[in-house]
Amino acid sequence: MKKLKRYTQFFLNLVLFSFIFYLINVYNDSTKYEKQTVKNDKRLDLSKSLFERDKYTINCDLIFKKDENEIKKSKTILKSLDLNANNSYGLLSDSNFIFPKSNCPDFISQRGYFRFNNYTHQIELDFPIAYSILTYEHTEQFERLLNAIYRPHNIYCIHIDLKSSSFFKESIRSIANCFDNVFITTKLEYIIYAGFNRLKADFNCIKDLLDHENLIDENHPNLLNKKKVAWKYLLNLASSEFPIKTNLELVQIFQLLNGSNSIYINKVHGMISHRMKNIFFNDYLNNRIYSIKKARNNKPPHSIRLVKGSAYGAFDRMFLKNIFINSKILDFIKWLKHTYSPDEFFWASLELNTHLYENSTFKDSKKANYIYDIARFNGWYGSYECGGMWRHKICVLSFEDLNRVINERSIIVNKFMLEYDPMSYQCMEEWLNRKVVEKFYKGLNETYFLKDICSLFRKRSFKVDC
Ligand SMILES: *[C@@H]1O[C@H](CO)[C@@H](O)[C@H](O)[C@H]1NC(C)=O
Ligand SMILES: *[C@@H]1O[C@H](CO)[C@@H](O)[C@H](O)[C@H]1NC(C)=O
Ligand SMILES: *[C@@H]1O[C@H](CO)[C@@H](O)[C@H](O)[C@H]1NC(C)=O
Ligand SMILES: *[C@@H]1O[C@H](CO)[C@@H](O)[C@H](O)[C@H]1NC(C)=O
Ligand SMILES: *[C@@H]1O[C@H](CO)[C@@H](O)[C@H](O)[C@H]1NC(C)=O
């Protein structure tokens, strides 16, 4: 009995000590947390602007020249930033971007949304571009992408994942409210990794963009006070991407494409059979998709040859319009609903199977296993030397990557993460701002640039004559 009492006493003491130890730890953690918050607040200087952080003092020109000392110095600064401390991951808080419409003039002027108005050629105004942007977290990163690609004469549709926080959704609404050419798609999806809804999210935006004039006429709440834009080409983006071509360059590229798309195709990818043979379902509770053993999918309809590609591309408006009225393509979409990662198969297969679209300008090069696009640059694991870190087998870009990526022929570079390296991102913004002005003055006859792009198109057997 006595023994039992002693054990109980010992046990109680143990619990008590553990609890005290726990409290000390919690206290330590919270003081650490406060210290970091204060430090970050100072850096962000919120009194100056809720919408932007102070500029980091680095020499981007040297970084672009791969200057070893400057890169070393920048890495040291980056390390000292405590970005991964658990206070908003070093990002501006999403709630900074929740504001009433009356604050829009401040937002627009502080963030310089109209800074390129005097650096826009008539051919850009005559050739509006549509964007479909998928986003689910980190308002600051989304806003900085929008800021880089925004032009008052283009049109921007945003899809917000249904599982995003209400703060995030509210912040994106506040931003969209400030512009007559930025809107949130009329139908939001709950996106599960590799599920059909990822593709559906793009479809929703594309449909709305094709139909926005009617939605405006019908006073749809998402399109109140928006304007009609006769866009000609569409780019779809994720908010972790960044453009390396100016709007003028895009217009020149799209004019060369002359109705063709730029879609990456990989004809020899081995994952197709597994991903397409089984039937997959959404499991919303566990936020994943799953397949049932032996539940086999039928062959794709209309003798479609499946190929893998990218979920992102550059698309002609007529081509996109056709998707939603062409019965063969609608059958294909229905079939894709229960496959794995259909966004990576849809665009590439559509492009390759020219019998699906009477006006297709794609000419397959039978010998080629890969058809390269100019829509995207990805630093793929295994074929790219990453200066940053790997995430889902794609390089998250950092200082040592910048010199290479700005010289890529692609339109968009994937990917940057502000919470990982906000300094490289700042350099990319400075570089792009300057490039817009330079290209504006160099004008429309930049033979080198166009020749280079043309030779690429010729290799791709487009029906372009340049
Ligand atoms: C950091 O914050 C996130 C989001 O608030 C939370 O889910 C996570 O548990 C936190 N991590 C740590 C180590 O405290
Ligand atoms: C554009 O140019 C006009 C006239 O030169 C000038 O008044 C205006 O401030 C400029 N706007 C911007 C955004 O630079
Ligand atoms: C094909 O192009 C012609 C001529 O531009 C057009 O009238 C027709 O509607 C197009 N068809 C499709 C399916 O886009
Ligand atoms: C563009 O520049 C090249 C080389 O300077 C010149 O040969 C060509 O005629 C110019 N084209 C136009 C349309 O001005
Ligand atoms: C562009 O396409 C149209 C019709 O699709 C064609 O008639 C024209 O020759 C093409 N232009 C060039 C420069 O390839």
From TrEMBL:
<keyword id="KW-0325">Glycoprotein</keyword>
<dbReference type="GO" id="GO:0016020">
    <property type="term" value="C:membrane"/>
</dbReference>
<keyword id="KW-0735">Signal-anchor</keyword>
<keyword id="KW-0472">Membrane</keyword>
<dbReference type="InterPro" id="IPR003406">
    <property type="entry name" value="Glyco_trans_14"/>
</dbReference>
<keyword id="KW-0328">Glycosyltransferase</keyword>
<comment type="pathway">
    <text>Protein modification; protein glycosylation.</text>
</comment>
<keyword id="KW-0812">Transmembrane</keyword>
<protein>
    <submittedName>
        <fullName>Uncharacterized protein</fullName>
    </submittedName>
</protein>
<keyword id="KW-1133">Transmembrane helix</keyword>
<dbReference type="GO" id="GO:0008375">
    <property type="term" value="F:acetylglucosaminyltransferase activity"/>
</dbReference>
<dbReference type="Pfam" id="PF02485">
    <property type="entry name" value="Branch"/>
</dbReference>
<comment type="similarity">
    <text>Belongs to the glycosyltransferase 14 family.</text>
</comment>
<feature type="transmembrane region" description="Helical">
    <location>
        <begin position="7"/>
        <end position="27"/>
    </location>
</feature>
<keyword id="KW-0808">Transferase</keyword>
